[in-house]
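Below is how a single chain appears once it has passed through the pipeline. First comes the sequence as given, then the structure the pipeline wrote out for it. We keep one example in the README because the format questions we get most often are answered faster by looking than by reading.
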Amino acid sequence: MPGKKHTTTLSGAAISDKFTTVKIIRKLYPPLTIHRRPPKNLGPGEIQYFGGPELTFVTPESNFVYYKNAIVTHHGIILKGLTLQKNLIVSYDVDLKHYRFRFLAHVLLKLKKITLSQTNKYVLIFDNYSGPKGLAHWYSDSLTRLVEIKDEIKDHIALVPWYYQKNKFIAESLELFGITNIQVIEEGCKVKVPNLYVAQHIAPSGNFNPENVKKLRDFIWSKNKLDLKFSLGERIYISRSRAEFRYVINDTEVAELLKTYGFSVVYMEDYDLAQKVSVVYNAKYMVSIIGAAFSFVHFMRPGSSIMEFRKRNDGVNCIYWALADALDINYYYQYGDARVHHMGSYNFDLTMDVALLEKNIQQMLHTNGETI
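Resulting structure:
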């Protein structure tokens, strides 16, 4: 059992410069070429929206790294001297590359600087996409790294983001890893860390190393306090009807159809992490709209099936197809008509064609030998 939690809130070869030393502690994974399977119900001409036609992806080498005298911002961005460590920044080229000088000025002039202890070892376990509402990225980009280094950081203090206290899923998952010594980087602050350790991303965000995600899945299964016995049925529809955006506009109609095929309607916000993991572990079929609900694909069993409601002609958001493929889960999808709130990858709601959905559900069940 984890010990008492101590939380402090703050308002290989070495490469050196006058400010910072960087050292590779060990290699986590070498570069890997991944050959993905197409969706089970891939439509004509739609392979381009899943990275086709080759469906091949190469992940770079990943290492566990040590920094001496680094700066870490409240968003989990590391500076070595005055240099942004862009290989540890999610979506650097899109979000930060053209604004880096303005961002550096903000960090240097606006953020309150706090220097941490010279004698402690600190491990950074979040990045600029972890939150404040980043459940999907927390599981896919943070926990995938944490599972690789968990046995090496037992005497380290974990640096966590200012929104840690507001996001129950972060605290729940850290408890599973036995992380009890925590230091919060408050909003509006940067910390100078004399001894910083960080695992590089196992794969670029939205992509996965199969060995790594299976390791995370097995670890989370092994820590389930319900022994994976809590179930809401083998067929579940995760509804986002309570969400502010990215929900199914005709959710009631969709839910009623799915109920006729034996699906239970599930609201994930009603359950704690142990229950959520157990629910998806026991599900053979899961249907939902693209979003955080599909983060729990991480904990489904191989051979199970998912159906994702997607925005039409979306070639950007393929994270859950990639995750399902890495975990040997069958992936199906259906396009919906989008009502876009404002520009951005996820700022939309969908109306689903229920007649087409019935055909797709029948295909998914029939393909897997189920009685309809």
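The mean pLDDT is 91.

See the next section for the split statistics.
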